[in-house]
Amino acid sequence: xxxxxxxxxxxxxxxxxxxxxxxxxxxxxxxxxxxxxxxxxxxxxxxxxxxxxxxxxxxxxxxxxxxxxx
Length: 70
Description:
Elements: H1 2-26, H2 42-51
């Protein structure tokens, strides 16, 4: 029973990691900025990046956010 809870926690944390990196890409930041949360009060910078508006132009990782008009 206890191992199921640990697996669920790992599954949720991996999903949150993917969401955070995708959100950083949406704001035109690299996913490596996630590691700033390791230092004390670094999560505040990460939170700031997470609440920035989405960049409405093609980002470095492709134009998956918006379709380019022809």
